[in-house]
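Q: What structure does this chain adopt?
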Amino acid sequence: MRATTGSDRINYPDDVSSKTAELPTSKLLFNSVVSTPGARFLTADIKDFFLSTSKMERGEFARVPLSTFPQCIIDQYNLASLARKGFVHIQIDGGMYGLPQASLLANQQLVRKLTSAGFVQARHAPGLFVHTSKPIMVALIVDDFGIQYVGKPAADFIISTLRRDYSTPSPLIGLEPSSVASTSSGTTPNALSNSPCPATLPEL
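A:
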């Protein structure tokens, strides 16, 4: 069970939109995988992305009916003494589902961590990150990553970078250009295979 805030009840004064990779960016990334010698493609996902935001500069508040808490929680935290007119008032200092600014704050934190790891966001393609010294290019859509890399050390680097600050990403999917297959099979050269095979990181 997860608690959420009522976003329609929160008045956040600033822009809450966050930049994300668009469809043309994703298509260009796939084309780059096909065109780059030795390149492969994998995906990764951050677990509980919106809950990983560090302490917010501007806290929010919520009013929760005491009756929604199990009795064991009420007893453990002595909530009955804190309730007023049947409600418990709580302060929200970190990321939480339902906050209008949750996506923006989580994205800003992630961009800072990617930047510190050597990634630079493309000036004219929001959500596209390129590493300054390693053969890695990343398209970010909310908490999902499409990653082009060359060589297993590059894959190890991006995954270890994510795992340093976030919950373990979901299992990865490896793709490679179908052009590595014999053209006599009828496969069109320089195209991605339509039948990706699941792969765990040690297999990449």
